[in-house]
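Before the break, one more example. Copy the sequence into your notebook; we will annotate it together after we see the structure.
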Amino acid sequence: AITARLSNSDVYENWTDVSGFLCADPRVVDNPPVIETITYRELRELSYMGAGVLHEAAIFPVRKEGIPINIRNTNRPMDSGTMIVESTCRKPAYTITGIAGKKGFCSINIDKDLMNEEIGFGRKVLQVLEDFRVSFEHVPTGIDSMSVVVAASDLDPVKDDVVRSIVAACEPDTVAVHDHMCLIATVGRGMVHNCGTAARLFMAMSRAGINVRMIDQGSSELSIIVGVNDSDFEATIHAIYHEFVG
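Here is what the structure looks like once it is written out:
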């Protein structure tokens, strides 16, 4: 990647043992199709949630120069692989580009009457996590409630101390930690301004009898992240995949 950047190459070919970036984990879904074209932003979302083909260190040097990456298969050189680009007007094969997920999360749920009127409440909660060196993944909020999703492996060693510190700093009505949650991201540039995408996703999960514990969708509409029980991990990916891909 560094050589491609320094030489101002037209394309950086990365030869590996797969024929491109798959739209779902083949350990969960049988024979998922290869993504023909994916943007860096979509790749970033999927890679962060566990879809691994390229290490991030191999992406950023060429991304800064606008050089596309072509993932190719050493054992099947005839396959065209996946093109990773900064932007594209090419319409994706499906509404979504890919699905990826990770287990091992938990949520710290905090309730306090009139929380919305207390300036700095969220900062105090996040300051406690920073003090204990626990990074947060998502912060869904309500009027009088706030949840912070964190990696269980980071929180478990200091769980009791974190809860006590939140109680001391924020004086909430209740604080509870809920374990055994996984996060699943549905990503795609085809979702942007496409009415009904979220409805289809949640309807598919509803038909599969899956309870949604957390929802997070950014303003870019590039991804929808849901939190479900660890036990529903595979079923959720299957439900979303069969709704959008087949």
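The chain has eight helices and ten strands. The chain has a mean pLDDT of 89. Try to locate both features in your own notes.
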